[in-house]
Structures are given as structure tokens and as C-alpha cells.
Amino acid sequence: MTDAPTIEDAPARRADAAGWAPFIPPYTPPWPALPSLVRAMLRGDGDLLSLLPREAYHMKIGPLGYSRRSIVVVNEPSMVRHVLADPEGIFPKSDLMVHALEPLIGDSIFVSSGATWRRQRKVIDPALSMMRVNRAFPAMEAGCADAESEYDRHAEHGTPFSLDLAMSHLTADIICRTVFTTTLHSKTAHDVFDAFTEFERRVAQVEIRRLIWDKAWTRAPQKAPVLEACATIRARIGELLDTHLDAGASFDDIAQQVIEARDDVGAKAFTREELIDQLGVLFLAGHETSASALTWVFAILATQPALVARLRAEVEEVTGGGPIEFHHIKRLTLTRNIFRETLRLYPPITFLPRVANEATALNGYRLKKGALVMVAPWVLHRHRLYWKDPNRFDPDRFLPEREQEITSGAYIPFGIGPRICAGAAFATIEATLLIARLFRRFDWTLDAPERIRPAARLTTRPVEQVMCRVRPA
Ligand code: HEM
């Protein structure tokens, strides 16, 4: 680990042959703890990013502002690994997150712990294996082709459209195709999407007031519209599931694999309710995160034509001008590095909150029972000790020749340890395909790039909708 302070305002790297140089995309510069708290309260938009004090980006472990239950940010990579691997079962997922997601996904893989989680993970892993993703690739291509037709219509009329919404539609459509062999155009899938949008907008995962005043494990009732949205999503996913159960084994998709999977030979299958829980996770985790990441990739690239020129040159070289096929994906190095660098600066899952379910210590730092233990990819990925030029967008930092610049364990957009994202391969292949295809085909521009500001909601999103336009490239 490098202990030397890094130089945030180091001179920018020089422009490359295509005339592109790394730059600093939008973020809210952090303030000291008290002004940060006042700013977050005054804004009242529940954005936890603006609550993060400047000190959080320098320390290895320490308190996050003021809170009755104690909130501790953990940044040092070996401590991060320990908390997330949780060998003694002391740090389950935080009560706030579990309570918020429970009505939607029950005690499913994203929030469960111990033996329940182990059984679920054994079943979900094969359903999202590389082999399965390879089989899902044509469905990803079909989703992309549909989106291209829609963007063609926007291009023809020059109409602006919401980038955030377009990316949510696209990734939800791909999840519907790969998990359920249906499209977002079907009424059932569309109902799930609409109800999910309502859930995302209203769920009280973290209210700053509650973070400060509530004791650990205080349950706040969810609002009626949130519960209604959850009931709708579960009912519609149940319908999609029943289509599969009624048809026997005739589907070749991820839902079918989860239905048939057993954690051990002769073991019991998931019940119908458990299946709805797990498929709900795949819908939630599988589209919202990718939509967040792609919104940032597209917003960044739309302002960087010289980088897009490099990207297009790579796509032409790798594919020889033909269609982008599965075997091309791993050779699209720059495209993938743009995705990776975007995940560094705008990790979709901004925080990985855990709760200390007993008093304990981390490398001598004492944690009281009920403390909220925050591993924060957002903070870790911009930490002054672990990154050179932390706020600068520079996809080439992931090139093999610069690998030594990256501190092991300081880059965790998919988490780390046994709970690492089960869909990381799916997400990376999907994103690489979509970025390569949609930038090869269209020029993207933004209506008001200067207004973009990130906020932490269910995932990391722009505060306001980003309006964009496309033209044929
Ligand atoms: C860019 C896209 C994605 C990002 C950044 C992402 C990130 C993450 C992270 C950080 C976790 C760990 C959470 C924690 O430890 O608290 C996680 C878990 C998970 N993700 Fe993803 N994810 C993405 C896409 C996907 C996709 C496409 C799927 C499925 C199709 C998926 C399925 C899951 C599942 C099932 C878990 C729970 C794993 C467990 O607890 O054992 N994710 N994801």
C-alpha cells in the first residue's frame, strides 16, 4: 500500500495522438464535516454524497459525521476485505438496507446471511456463469438492436430524450429477455418496470435525519406507495414465473436455470415465494446497477469526441468492420477500460453498508454494537492515499503497463470476497457490447452537461435527468 499522499491537482496527462487528455468529470467537492452536514440538511434531497466530509477521503478508518448509533467509514483495503468477508459473522448487511428491500426481495441472496445465503449463492452462481452469459449474448444483441431502432427515430426528428430513462429501459429490456425470455414491451414486464421506478423514487433506504437520530435496528414503516409497488412487482414476477412452471422445462433462460437448480444432489428446490425473491433480485440488481453505470459512461463520452474516435478505431480494428460478436468482447480493451474507469468514479452501488451486531474492534479501532460500518466504493475509489489524480477520468490507468498504480483492494465496484457481485461477468459483457455498438452507430450530445451532479440514491445517479440527442455517426 502506498502511504504517500497523492497529488489531486497533478498536471493533467498530455493529450494522446487522437487529441484526447484525461479530465475531471462532475462531482461535488467535499467540505469539512459540520458544513457538509448543514449542506446536506439544507438541500434536503437525501443525497449522502454531499454528507461525506473531506476527511473521509484521507483516513483509513474513522467516524462519518455525527450520529447517535455511530457511523464508521472503513477505507483501508485489508479492513475492507475483513468486513466484507466477515469470517466471524459479525457484519451482516445493514438493518437499514435489509428493512428497505425486504418487502421487495424478502430474505433473498442480496440481503441474507449465513447458511441461507450460502445455499442461495450455490444456486445463483451457475445461473450467471460465463457459459450462461455466452448463451444470453444473442438476447443482449436483440435488446440493443431494438434500442438502435428507437434512437434512429430520435435521430430522424432531432428530439431530445432522457439518457437516464433510455439506459433504464435498455438494461431492463435485456434483463427481461435474458432472465424471462420476454421483452419490456410485454404488459407484465412493463408493469414491473413502472412499479420499480415508483419504488426507486420513494423507498426510504436512508434518510439523513434517521441516520443521525435513530438507534440501530429502529424499524421505520415503509410508505404505502412503496409497499404497493413491491406487491405489484412480486405479483407480476409471479406471473412470469408461472409461465415457466406451467411450461415444464421448455425455456432456455436464467429463470429456468434458477428453477431447476439445487444446491446439493437431492436437495429441496426453492419454493414459489423464494423463487420470486431471487428473480426479484436479478431484476433489481441486474438492471438498475447497469443503467446507472451506462448513464455515466454515455454522459462522459458525449462530451469527449476525441476519446470516442479512439473507441471507434478500436471497434473497427477488432471486428474488421463486421458485427460485434461474443469473442470480440475481451479484445475491446479501451471500451472495457472506459467502463471500468466509469465504475471507479461513479460506482453504481455507492455504499456497501454493514452493521456490527456485537461490540468489536477493527485493527484496534473500537466499534460499538449497532454501529453502521460503511465500506464506500465511492470514497475508496477517490481516496487520496490509494489513487494518483483520484478525480481525473483516465481509462488508461487500467492498462497492464500501469497496473502497479492500482492498490490491491482499492477498486471494488463489484464488491470483494465471497459476496462479490454474482453478475459481474454479465454486466461487463453487456456494457462492453452496448458501448461499442451504440457509439459506433451514433454521435451522442448532451443538452446541458454543466448541470450534471451525482447523488447517491438506490444507485449513483445524476440529481436531475440528463437530456441527450443522437445523430447517425
Ligand atoms: C455495473 C453493474 C453492476 C454492479 C456495479 C454491481 C455491483 C454489485 C455489488 C457491489 C454487489 C455486492 C453488494 C454487497 O456486498 O453489499 C453486488 C451483488 C450482487 N449482484 Fe451485482 N452489480 C452489477 C450488475 C449485476 C447484474 C447484471 C446482476 C445479475 C444479472 C447482478 C447480480 C448480483 C447479485 C445476485 C448480488 C448478490 C451477491 C451475494 O450477495 O452473494 N449484479 N453487485
Description:
With 473 residues, the protein is of the alpha+beta class. The protein has a single domain (33-472), classed as Cytochrome P450 (Cytochrome p450, Orthogonal Bundle), CATH 1.10.630. The protein is 47% helix and 8% strand. It has 15 helices and eleven strands. The protein has helices at 33-43, 77-85, 95-105, 114-127, 130-157, 163-180, 187-202, 208-213, 224-246, 254-260, 272-301, 305-319, 333-345, 377-380, 424-441, and strands at 61-63, 71-74, 161-162, 352-355, 360-362, 365-367, 372-375, 442-446, 454-456, 460-462, 467-472. The strands form four sheets. A four-stranded mixed β-sheet has the order 1-2-7-4. α9 packs across α11 (272-301). It is globular. The model is unreliable at 1-11 (pLDDT under 50). The site of protoporphyrin IX containing FE has 26 residues, from α4, α11 and α15.
